[in-house]
Specification:
The structure holds 2 protein chains of 2 kinds.
Chain A: H1 2-36, H2 40-60, E1 63-64, H3 66-69, E2 71-78, H4 80-87, H5 95-108, H6 115-127, H7 134-137, H8 148-177, E3 183-187, E4 191-197, H9 202-210, E5 215-219, H10 225-241, H11 247-256, H12 278-288, E6 296-301, E7 304-308, E8 324-329, H13 330-341, H14 343-346, E9 353-358, E10 372-379, E11 384-385, E12 389-396, E13 403-409, H15 411-423, E14 429-433, E15 436-439, E16 451-454, H16 460-474, E17 479-487, H17 489-542, E18 546-547, H18 549-578, H19 583-615, H20 619-650
Parallel strand pairs in A: 1-18, 9-15
Antiparallel strand pairs in A: 2-4, 2-17, 3-4, 5-11, 5-14, 6-7, 6-8, 8-10, 9-10, 12-13, 13-16, 14-15
Helix pairs in contact in A: 1-2, 1-17, 1-20, 4-5, 4-8, 5-6, 8-16, 17-18, 17-20, 18-19, 18-20, 19-20
Chain B: H1 15-35, H2 42-45, E1 47-54, H3 60-69, E2 76-80, E3 82-90, H4 101-112, E4 118-126, H5 128-156, H6 159-186, H7 195-225, H8 231-241, H9 243-263, H10 269-301, H11 313-322
Antiparallel strand pairs in B: 1-3, 1-4, 2-3
Classes of the chains: A alpha+beta, B alpha+beta.
Chain lengths: 669, 323
């Protein structure tokens, strides 16, 4: 009896496990279908309710490869030659240096040698005889300690950090581009792999990937005129939504702005909201304030920021040059981007204003269900651009042991920086990369000499990020596309259709053969095979793997291997039956003798899969992954699960029989 | 249902004949490789490849002249499955944006066929460095797989059996390649050596060894059971005993692969074709290369008798019956 329970569990547990692992995939699909059936307004609402769940399910769901859903696959490599060229002092570059670069580029294209080594060799051959040294062309931050070794050290560091810089810039741009579920991966020390599902306009994308980043320093813009502009925008947007004749309503709108400008539902309830539930209030507020409902204000009073309502009655009470910023959430950020991009809205803002958002979620909200972002009002013209930055380091403040970033500027930059900081003590300067704010430190004192210290990072990662951002302005991280594959959405659909239909037909044929030839034994094999496929897909989903067309091929192949294992076992059982043994004894013997060859064949196939996985990449890895998972699940299902099914069947009664399609007595051929 | 009862076919009796067959096939492959060359896929070659769908059917010649007008007289143009789908390949990659070869091809075609809607199905741009890197990796992968298998079989069986299995493997990879080459020459399918074909070759390696292992395993078992039996009858017995498994497995796998080949779409063609050939040669080579190699080694190098001192068993049985 005890053995029976164990056998039932052997069959049930893998099924339950597979269902558990595949449930998020099913759920995500259901939710996606539900969302797609709504109109865009309802989708926004749906996102607020289900957005977080949907994201979570999608994260655990089985992902489809680009070949199945269409998209773009790009491999980028840091262009070290260009980096060496750009790192040089522009004023010092002469014909000799250009020749060194040209020669290096020519040789690097056809060699696997480190580009820096090629460069140094060419430098020795071409530039040295003319009396030049590295010091001629490259500057260092620390002027007291200039030597060739230091410069080489610095170049090495620049090259190694270039990938991270490029990664940061690209990640930000892709987020902005609105690609859903992109994969951005570092490969080795020089390469970045990008998988961008559903990207249609790949030319625009290519441009985005290859232009260099723009780093700017912009002052926060004070003054209440922007707040009045916000009120106007809100009225304008709401007015468009309600019938023009409804003047009472618009007056009401202006009035109800008094209540609250908080994005989320507030408890404050004045007249127009009386008698409404919180949810209705929030909805009403959102309807009447399509713009102001998207963010909440924070104004600096004394030393601290305090929330304030953006309302006609509140603004005059603020100091005329009040310093403020706003908080919004992910969804709000997206909507605000769209609204502020409209030219008629743009015109309603003062001409010298630029609205920018923080690149990263505000501290503490990274893992919250709704991440908050800051919205800044900046002066449109940058005080300084990033090309004056020569270097940046993340380090620790020796006094407080807090993380900080040291930033160095060239002499021209240092001079202007001193003027800017001197004139704006106590104000905030935003560090903006490609239009996104990474930090907005307060100027403590006039900074002369070009080396600044930026504090206030919560941890080393934050400091490291700022370092990367600052360096992106200092030194371009040029990347080149070395591989690019685009799968059009129609080919993706075709592939899915043909892949799935081929798999189904192949499966049906195998089932037909197994059941005709091995009778009940065949039925057991098919059951085990079904469990096998479910487990394979489930484990793939569980590991966060991606199913591609070669992956499907891998699954089909493991099915063939699983069938082979069952054929080996059944043939052996038949042999034993032919020898006149009982069904039970034959099953025992059959499984026992079939085990060694099955294990041998699985080990060898697994070894090939492993080698493919390690050496292959992209499509081949997809194939190898499902093959390796499949080998393991096959070993389990075709030996243990099918054995358990057969044993359970035979245990029903002492006279139970199970046909393996054998014909007894055997006819002589 | 049973197709086969107990058989006693003298498989190894014809080993010399099939050796000739294998040698001939390999020589054909070698000749094709040297004089025709293996047509590499875009993965290993580098360059630009664009698959396009036109709204109406189109003649290749019209397309060829349009692509030539766009500045690519050496473009390779093939059908991509359907009559209105084409694959265009050029060795260039071009610069960025408007300079890119793919962009120039597509915009050139849009100009040449203004009434057609052109859909880009697929677009690959592979830099020359990636191409050569992948070539090296592919070679290393096949080599490593073979070495790993040799070690495993040598550990599980005797070394000479492992060697026999590996000789069979190399044979299978080569024969599968030969058929890919023949397929390329006859232009039956859009066959070229790409990552799919490489994956198929490696799977063939796995499958071929699988088949060999099952026979060797039976030989090992029978050697203990029938002490004193000479090698050839022992092997024949083992091959016959595993015959119905061999045939049933090959049958099911062939069913699966034929379905993939017919319905799996353009992307899986190379993979399924190579696998199909490889599975069949893998089965064949287990008998006529792997086992025959062990027989040859025992007979010629170790100078041991391989045919039984007493006449072969089936003959005895028949003689007794006749008597």
């Amino acid at each position: 009896m005890k053995g029976k329970v164990g056998k039932v569990l052997t069959i049930v547990i893998p099924i339950v496990l597979a269902i558990f692992l595949l449930y998020p995939t099913w759920r995500a699909q259901q939710m996606a279908a539900e969302r797609a059936s709504l109109d865009s307004a309802a989708q926004v609402q749906w996102d607020q309710v289900n957005g977080e769940d949907f994201r979570k399910e999608k994260l655990r769901a089985l992902k489809l490869g680009l070949d199945l859903r269409g998209g773009m696959y790009v491999t980028l490599e840091v262009d070290v030659v260009r980096l060496l060229e750009e790192a040089a002092d522009r004023a010092a570059i002469d014909e000799t240096f250009e020749r060194v670069i040209e020669e290096t580029r020519r040789q690097a294209d056809r060699s696997d040698e480190e580009v820096l080594d090629i460069f140094l060799r060419n430098f020795d051959q071409i530039a040295r005889p003319q009396g030049k040294s590295l010091v001629t062309y490259y500057e260092l931050v620390d002027v007291r300690d200039i030597s060739e070794e230091r410069i080489i050290e610095r170049l090495k560091r620049d090259i190694n950090e270039a990938v991270d810089q490029a990664l940061q810039v690209i990640r930000q741009r892709i987020d902005k581009f609105g690609v859903t579920e992109p994969t951005i991966q570092k490969q080795g020390t020089r390469r970045i792999l990008l998988e961008l599902p559903g990207v249609q306009d790949e030319r625009e994308m290519r441009q985005l990937l290859q232009t260099t980043a723009r780093l700017e320093f912009k002052l926060l813009r004070h003054g209440t005129d922007v707040l009045y502009a916000f009120l106007n925008i809100d009225r304008f947007l709401a007015g468009k939504g309600v019938p023009a004749a409804d003047t009472a309503r618009s007056a009401d709108t202006a009035h109800s702005g008094d209540t609250t400008a908080r994005a989320t539902s507030d408890t404050a309830s004045k007249d127009p909201y009386a008698g409404l539930s919180d949810e209705e209030k929030a909805a009403k507020f959102r309807r009447e304030h399509p713009f102001l409902s998207l963010f909440a204000g924070q104004v600096l009073i004394g030393e601290r920021y305090q929330p304030f309502d953006i309302a006609e009655s509140v603004i005059p009470k603020l100091p005329a040059d009040a310093e403020y910023y706003f908080l919004t959430n992910e969804d709000g950020k997206r909507q605000l981007h769209a609204i502020l991009a409209r030219p008629e809205i743009r015109r309603m803002l003062p001409a010298d204003v630029e609205i920018a958002f923080s690149a990263k979620p505000e501290r503490g909200s990274e893992n919250a269900p709704s991440r908050t972002y800051a919205m800044y009002v900046l002066k449109r013209d940058p005080e300084l651009t990033g090309d004056v930055v020569t270097d940046a380091y993340a380090t620790f403040d020796q006094m407080t042991n807090r993380p900080m970033v040291l930033m160095y500027m060239n002499s021209e930059g240092a001079e202007r920086w001193a003027k800017i900081t001197g004139a704006n003590i106590g104000k905030r300067i935003a560090i903006v990369l490609d239009g996104e704010v990474y930090s907005a430190p307060v100027v403590r004192s006039k900074i002369t000499g070009g080396s600044s210290q930026i504090e206030g990072m919560a941890n080393v990662e934050e400091a490291k990020l700022l370092q990367i951002v600052l360096k992106a302005g200092a030194l371009k991280a040029p990347v080149k596309i070395i591989e690019e594959r685009v799968v059009g959405p129609s080919l993706g659909e075709d592939s899915i259709r043909s892949g799935i239909s081929a798999a189904l037909i192949a499966f049906a044929l195998v089932v037909l053969f197994m059941v005709t030839y091995y009778s009940m034994g065949g039925v057991v094999a098919v059951l085990a095979m079904l469990i096998n496929v479910m487990l394979n897909l489930g484990i793939l989903a569980g590991f966060g793997g991606t199913l591609s067309l070669p992956g499907i091929a891998g699954i089909i192949l493991t099915l063939a291997i699983a069938v082979d294992a069952n054929i080996i076992i059944f043939e052996r059982i038949r042999e034993e039956l032919h020898r006149g043994r009982s069904v039970r004894a034959s099953v025992d013997e059959g499984f026992r003798h079939a085990l060694p060859p099955i294990i041998d064949s699985h080990v060898t196939t697994f070894l090939t899969g492993l080698i493919l996985f390690v050496l292959g990449y992209g499509p081949i890895q997809g194939f190898a992954t499902t093959l390796m998972i499949g080998i393991l699940t096959t070993l389990f299902t075709s030996i243990i699960v099918s054995r358990a099914i057969i044993d359970l069947w035979l245990a029903r009664s002492p006279s139970a029989r199970l046909s393996f399609g054998e014909v007894l007595p055997a006819p002589q051929s | 249902m049973e197709f086969f009862g107990k058989t006693s076919i003298d498989f190894l009796g014809k080993r010399r004949l099939f050796l000739v067959v294998s040698v001939v096939l390999n020589v054909i492959g070698l000749v094709l490789l040297i004089f025709g060359g293996l047509r590499l896929g875009i993965d290993f070659l580098g360059g630009t490849e664009v698959a396009l769908r036109f709204s109406a059917e189109l003649h290749t010649d019209a397309l060829r002249s349009a692509v030539a007008a766009a500045g690519f007289p050496n473009a390779e143009i093939k059908s991509y499955g359907k009559a209105n789908e084409f694959l265009i390949r050029v060795p260039e990659i071009g610069g960025q944006g408007e300079q890119a070869a793919s962009f120039r091809i597509v915009s050139g075609l849009k100009k040449a066929f203004p009434n057609e809607t052109i859909t880009v199905l697929k677009e690959d741009r592979i830099g020359p460095k990636i191409g050569s890197e992948l070539r090296t990796k592919a070679f290393v992968a096949v080599l490593l797989a073979i070495v790993a298998i040799l070690l495993y079989i040598a550990f599980r069986f005797e070394f000479i059996y492992g060697l026999g299995a590996v000789v069979a493997l190399v044979h299978d990879v080569f024969v599968a390649l030969t058929f890919v080459l023949i397929g390329q020459k006859l232009e039956i399918l859009n066959l070229e050596f790409n990552q799919g074909v490489l994956a198929a070759l490696l799977t063939v390696v796995g499958f071929s060894i699988n088949d060999t292992v099952i026979i060797f395993d039976r030989i090992r078992e029978n050697r203990d059971k029938h002490k004193g039996m000479a090698l050839v009858p022992l092997m024949n017995l083992s091959i016959n005993e595993t015959l119905s498994r061999t045939i049933n497995t090959v049958l099911t796998v062939v069913l699966v692969l034929a379905t993939l080949l017919a319905l799996g779409g353009e992307v899986l063609h190379g993979f399924s074709f190579t696998m199909l050939v490889g599975i069949i040669t893998g089965t064949y080579s287990s008998i006529y290369i792997a086992s025959a190699f062990v027989v040859w080694y025992t007979e010629r190098i170790k100078k041991e008798p391989v045919e039984s001192a007493e006449p072969r068993q089936p003959k005895i049985l028949r003689a007794l019956k006749e008597a």
